[in-house]
Automatic annotation (TrEMBL):
Record's keyword terms, sorted: Membrane, Signal, Transmembrane, Transmembrane helix
Localization per record: Membrane
Lineage of producing organism: Eukaryota, Metazoa, Spiralia, Lophotrochozoa, Annelida
Ranges of residues in domain GOST seven transmembrane: 62-306
UniProt source species: Capitella teleta
Taxonomy, superkingdom: Eukaryota
Keyword Transmembrane helix listed: yes
Record protein name field: GOST seven transmembrane domain-containing protein
Membrane topology: Multi-pass membrane protein
Biased composition (Basic and acidic residues): 353-362
């Protein structure tokens, strides 16, 4: 069999605005169409795309400026959230600081993303060091986001102060899936669309991402069910119903965020003209920022926040009921209205001591 080597070069120059658009390059091995031809080829393409010295496409040109701008916005939001936590006189929980770390990581990921696009615009390729740093922060951001949503959805520190075995199983499932989804997205970004791996990893990313989005909704649903049952059984029905209403709001927010960033943004990407491809990134970041701001507002440490109106006293009382020995079964604690001739002040002190002793192990 003879071996042939062909070297060709061609230039496509767009001079008129009417000729602007998206162009595809197809290669056909005509000899391979014949039965038992045995023809095989090895194609190597060096493709240079330039828009008057700018190596970004028309739809990506605004992205470096946009990512730098959003980085500043997220950094300001993170600093304001830190100020709220440091100056708050109310209870500040660990999850509040986890939300703070998430916003800072998001800001760092955006600035590295902007740097990568800047190198592509100037040199035509990414700088490997900044690309690796971006992918690390991208992986951290995705994992922290799903961890935060799962923790809030399970009611950790707001409804209950420990994670149940069911919640831990969700973490065991969601976190590895989210890491796999982020790895698939990284491989997709670094793979050309014509390669076979691109289609496979794209399908893996879509499937795993949908599984993650569906899994993080379960803790929210369980928390809603827990509060609904508690509002019908314990003596603080009004407060539990108020918390139940807000958890339903959070459930709707999570669903809207997932629906918008996974479906609406994709529809925008495939429908808008080529020079407006950056709009899908704009809507995605605006939706993410809105989700962060609304979640931070609903779960902020404040005196009028319904999530903090149920103190740990409820959990303590429940623990006391569960750990009562069998000898006390059937007995009911009754508040005594008389003091057997004792001084009212002594009676008040005795009652106060009893309340303090009941919280000895809080």
């Amino acid at each position: 069999m003879n071996n042939y080597s062909v070297l060709s070069q061609f230039l496509v120059e767009i001079k008129n605005p009417e000729e602007e658009g998206l162009y595809n390059l197809y290669y056909h091995n005509c000899g391979n169409y014949e039965v038992d031809s045995g023809y095989s080829t090895n194609l190597t393409v060096y493709l240079v795309e330039s828009n008057k010295g700018n190596y970004l496409s028309a739809g990506q040109m605004p992205l470096p400026t946009f990512f730098f701008t959003m980085c500043v916005v997220y950094f300001i939001v993170a600093c304001y959230w830190l100020y709220v936590l440091r100056t708050s006189s109310e209870g500040v929980f660990k999850i509040h600081y986890l939300m703070l770390v998430l916003v800072y990581v998001k800001s760092v990921a955006l600035i590295l993303h902007g740097v990568n696009y800047t190198f592509i615009r100037v040199k035509g390729h990414r700088e490997e060091a900044f690309a690796v740093l971006y992918y690390i922060t991208y992986l951290m951001k995705g994992t922290l986001l799903f961890m935060t949503v799962v923790l809030i959805g399970s009611g950790w520190t707001f409804v209950k102060h420990i994670l149940s075995d069911r919640d831990k199983k969700i973490f065991i499932i969601v976190i590895p899936l989210q890491i796999l989804a982020n790895v698939a997205q990284i491989i997709i970004d670094e793979t050309e669309e014509g390669e076979s791996q691109y289609t496979m990893w794209t399908e893996v990313f879509i499937l795993v991402d949908l599984l993650c989005c569906g899994a993080i909704l379960f803790p929210v649903v369980w928390s809603i069910r827990h509060l609904q049952e508690a509002s019908q059984t314990d003596g603080k029905a009004a407060i539990n119903l108020q918390k139940l209403k807000i958890f339903r709001h959070f459930y709707i927010i999570v669903v809207c965020y997932i629906y918008f960033t996974r479906i609406i943004v994709y529809l925008l990407k495939i429908t808008v003209p080529f020079q407006y491809e950056w709009i899908n990134e704009l809507f995605k970041e605006i939706a993410t920022l809105t989700f962060f701001v609304i979640s931070g507002y609903k779960f902020r440490p404040a005196t009028n926040n319904p999530y903090f109106q149920v103190s740990q006293e409820d959990d303590t009382e429940m623990d006391e009921v569960v750990t009562q020995p069998g000898a006390y079964e059937g007995l009911t604690h009754v508040n005594v209205k008389f003091n057997d001739g004792k001084d009212p002040a002594d009676s008040a002190v005795s009652t106060l001591k009893q309340r303090e002793s009941s919280h000895e192990y809080d």
